[in-house]
Design goal:
By secondary structure, the protein is of the alpha+beta class. It has 3 domains: about 90 residues, RNA polymerase II/Efflux pump adaptor protein, barrel-sandwich hybrid domain (OB fold (Dihydrolipoamide Acetyltransferase, E2P), Beta Barrel), CATH 2.40.50.100; about 60 residues, no CATH class; about 230 residues, Chloramphenicol acetyltransferase-like domain (Chloramphenicol Acetyltransferase), CATH 3.30.559.10. Helix content is about 30%, strand content about 25%. Strands 9, 12, 15, 16, 17, 18 and 19 form a 7-stranded mixed β-sheet that branches. Helix 7 crosses helix 10. The termini are far apart.
């Protein structure tokens, strides 16, 4: 018998949560086969079988484990039972069944949007139930059999939508949620945080995007979004105002000659902040490709520790959820975070005339210990200027002035 222990995933991490077993107790597993998924306070990772043999599982899904705890044991002396291979592949064989209802035209829901147990998925397909009408109660939002039966017995309304209900539900916080809570409180308590606001006319960026987005996608294989414009504008502004790109380390200020921009990504598990390295040196296409890559990894819980660590400045976009204005909180140990918001048509004065423009409020939260008011306001004004004049994003200044070396 050999013990499979919880591996070390970082110096500061002492415990993890068992998300799920990918193999069952008593299954015969091959060497290097994935047997479980664990979640640390920063990322999700897989545990592989060190030897082939019969698996004996230990803790239950949802349990909190210490680094070095025994996760499972494997009897490598056990003979491979007849039919073991088909059994080991059973989850893969059943997966299409679980996926099939998701693609049903009657349900009208993309396959990626529905998570259901095989039995629940079979009932959904057989009864042609729209998964949107089913309230999931399973682990991590998975639809179970009882959820579907409840939906069938309550047609036309969501299960649980009983008048005057007073039910309560307790749910253990995940490692990630506990870490988010701790870091947010730490940011509020250890920084002298202020927020400055401005607004930007998004018409020039939107016109450039609409004009070139098809050619851009054809040339680079990725869509042209707003994030590349903001990341590029922030990269120039950060180099002009280096204090915004710095942080406090004890009694010292650490400045950076590079821009590692963190992008806040919301996932079902919580907020993650992967990093675009050397954003100042990337092209617009390079930034967009990296954003797509990191966002996809975040949704699939595949971000590595390296992709989550570091970062000198953060951009967060509350506008995708409809936020008109907010005060983002600093992603420590960084000293500043830029909040993007919803683009909304508003009347503004241009050249003495009232016109309608697609406007966005910008919010820069900053640590006043590092960044003075002049620097924070000037930084945000510079970002606004670059976004309202996208042609300046090539050189970081007016092309004519660059030509004249002014």
């Amino acid at each position: 018998m050999i013990d499979i222990k919880v591996p070390s995933v970082g110096e500061s991490i002492s415990e993890v949560t068992l998300l799920k077993w990918t193999k069952k107790d008593g299954d015969y597993v091959e060497r290097d086969e994935v047997i479980a998924e664990l979640e640390s306070e920063k990322a999700t990772f897989e545990v592989n079988a060190e030897k082939a043999g019969i698996l004996k599982t230990g803790p239950k899904e949802g349990d909190t484990l210490k680094i070095g705890d025994v996760l499972a044991t494997i009897d490598e002396t056990a003979a491979k039972p007849e039919g073991a291979a088909p059994k080991a592949e059973a989850p893969k064989a059943e997966a299409p069944k679980a996926e099939a209802p998701k693609a049903q035209p009657a349900a009208g829901v993309p396959a990626a949007d529905v998570k259901a147990t095989p039995v629940a998925a079979a009932i959904i397909a057989d009864k042609k139930v729209d998964p949107k009408t089913v309230t999931p109660s399973g682990y991590q939002g998975k639809i179970v059999k009882d959820d579907v039966l409840a939906a069938l017995s309550n047609p036309g309304r969501k299960p649980g939508a009983v008048q005057f209900t007073r039910g309560d539900k307790r749910e253990k916080m995940s490692n990630l949620r506990r870490t988010i809570s701790r870091r947010l409180v730490e940011a509020k308590n250890t920084t002298a945080m202020l927020t400055t606001f401005n607004e930007v006319d998004m018409k020039p960026v939107m016109e450039a995007r609409n004009k070139y987005k098809d050619k851009f996608k054809e040339a680079h294989g990725v869509g042209l979004g707003f994030m590349s414009f903001f990341a590029k504008a922030c990269s120039f502004a950060l180099q002009e105002w280096p204090a915004v790109n710095a942080y406090v380390d004890g009694d010292e200020l650490v400045y950076h000659d590079y821009c590692d921009i963190s992008i806040a990504v919301s996932t079902p598990r919580g907020l993650t902040v992967p990093v675009i390295r050397n954003a100042e040196s990337l092209s617009m296409a390079g930034i967009e490709k990296k954003v797509v890559e990191l966002a996809a990894k975040a949704r699939d819980n595949k971000l590595s520790m390296e992709e989550l660590q570091g970062g000198t400045f953060t951009i967060t976009n509350g506008g995708v959820f409809g936020s008109l204005l907010s005060t983002p909180i600093i992603n420590i140990p960084q000293s500043a975070i830029l909040g993007m918001h919803k683009i909304e048509e508003r009347p503004v004065v241009v050249g003495g005339q009232i016109v309608i423009r697609p406007m966005m409020y910008l919010a820069l939260s900053y640590d006043h210990r590092v960044i003075d008011g002049r620097e924070s306001v000037s930084f945000l004004v510079r970002v606004k200027e670059l976004l309202e004049n996208p042609d300046q994003l090539l050189f970081g200044k007016d092309p004519v002035k660059a030509l004249l070396e002014l």
